[in-house]
Amino acid sequence: MTNVASAVDLLVVDDDPEFRETLRARFSRQGFEVALASSGDEALASST
Amino acid sequence: MMPGMTGVELLKRFKEEYADTEVVMLTGQGSIESAVEAMKLGAYDYLQKPFPLKELETVMLKASERRNLRKENTQLKALLSRAQTAQGMIGKSPAMQEVFRLIERAGPSGRAILILGESGTGKELVARALHRSSPRADKPMVVINCAALPETLLESELFGHEKGAFTGAVSSKAGLFEVADGGTLFIDEIGELPGPLQAKLLRVLEDGSMRRIGSVQERRVNVRLLAATNRNLAEEVEAKRFREDLFYRINVMSLELPPLRERKGDIALLVEHFLGPGWEIEPQALECMERYRWPGNVRQLINAIERAKILSDSETIRLKDLPREVTEVVTSPPTSSIVSYDDVDDLAAIQRSKVVEVLRRESGNKSRAARALGVDRRKLYRLLEKYAIQDSEVDGR
Which of B30, B47, B313, B324 suits A26 as a labelling partner, its CA being 20 to 30 A distant? Predict the structure, then answer.
């Protein structure tokens, strides 16, 4: 079983794709492992 | 906004399923209520859009730091439950494991055991563990500290007295040997036991008989003796301050407790244990504690933690909350100008007078005083209790 919540450092949840990408770019550079989700349901689904 | 589910709803679900995950809320509508609700539900922080990315970055770094701290603490707790024994003592170091093994083996034997160790290493805890693992566990264990009582009192405490045996003996009283009959008597600091009492003690140990002060009646008692000392008893015997025959009697077997500086691997566990639930400690602070020599051993460690919990302005112990002697870097040799004084007492006195001063200035108003001191009311009450600050002190100018 893989658990995204513990494998990634940061999960960005937002419905604005541009905003998600901005954050991904920024925090990846900081060394964070970043995952993205566009909705609450998607966030919960990707975390189990 | 997120379709389907609000941010607050998602936060709730996340905190339910992944309690260790830190959540930072980014709110769009600028609604204060949802921000407050988010914080209540356990969000780490919230930012209102639009915000500088730099700000989010700072928050994220702090949040991930907290998550790591929390993870470390969880790991420590797991370790702790494994290292904590039925005896109520903590330690996974080889030295302590050996102590536990000896307790298990020597406890049930019923023989006298001499417990050695510096002060603050937990000699009484060992005595209790030995008693509990013996067939006498359901009988009393009685404790007496020879260093705490003058000779005359010590004698009447140990052996009891008859009415009128000496001035002030208005009634007859059983001594601790009688109280402990069938059980265990733990004599702490036995190295301080005066000569005449050493002879009397030897006699009880040899044939189980004793007499109360002022009594001609022999009484028989069945007591297991556990004794402890931080002196080198063999040297005391050599110097003729301790009877050799008594020494052999109480030293049938000895058990030595290691000083804390020789079991540094246990410090993190001890800190975790004495901090208690809800508290955390910064890694730097823990490192300092692991480096320090702890001349007062576990007792000193406990005092340092209790003090830090009072000084701390959050539920996390930081470097600044520790006594200065613990955080001082010891790599540089001490200069002659260092004045030695009791740092802990000194700081406590300073803190106490500060609290009184501020309370007076605020005419005893605790909310305002707490704010002025930068602590919450709960903490202020803890301080008032700790330093036994009376209202009269605050009123009386």
Answer: B30
Give the nearest partner residue to B57 out of A9, A30, A40, using CB atoms.
A30
Check residues B250 and B38 and name the one with the higher pLDDT: B250
Task: Write down the ipTM of this complex.
Answer: 0.84
Q: Is B47 on the interface with A (CB under 8 A)?
A: no
- Contact, B114 vs B251, CB < 8 A? yes
In degrees, rounded to 5, the angle at the alpha carbon of residue B329 between the alpha carbons of residues B310 and B334 is 115
Six-digit token string for B305: 């933690």
Smallest CA–CA distance, residue A27 to chain B, in Å, is 8
State how beta strands B184-188 and B224-229 pair: parallel
Q: Helix or strand or coil: residue B86?
A: coil
Residue of B1, B5, B44, B56 for testing the chain A interface, max A β-carbons within 10 Å: B5
Q: Dump pLDDT digits (tens) for B346-365.
A: 667 777 878 888 888 888 88
Using only the alpha carbons of chain B, give its radius of gyration.
28
A13 touching B (Cβ < 8 Å): yes
CA distance B9 to A40: 8
From the number of C-beta atoms within 10 Å of its C-beta (0-12, 13-18, 19+), residue B247 rates as middle
Pairing of strands B219-220, B209-210: antiparallel
Nearest neighbour of A40 by CB, restricted to B5, B17, B53: B5
**A32 contacts in B (CB within 8 Å)?**
60, 64
The string of pLDDT tens digits covering residues B144-166 is 888 888 888 888 888 988 888 77
Asked if A5 lies within 8 A of B64 by C-beta distance, the reply is no
Which residues of chain B does A26 touch, with a Cβ-Cβ cutoff of 8 Å? 53, 57
DSSP 3-state of A14: coil
Cα radius of gyration (chain A)? 10
- Give the CA dihedral B334, B340, B344, B347, nearest 10 degrees: -100
Q: What is the C-alpha separation between B51 and B137, in angstroms, rounded? A: 66
- Would an 8 Å CB–CB cutoff place A22 in contact with chain B? yes
Torsion-angle region of B117 (φ positive above 0: left; ψ -120 to 50: alpha; else: beta): left
Q: To which H or E segment does residue B15 belong? A: helix B7-17
Rounded to an integer, the average pLDDT of B210-236 is: 89
* Nearest-Cα residue of chain A relative to residue B14: A44
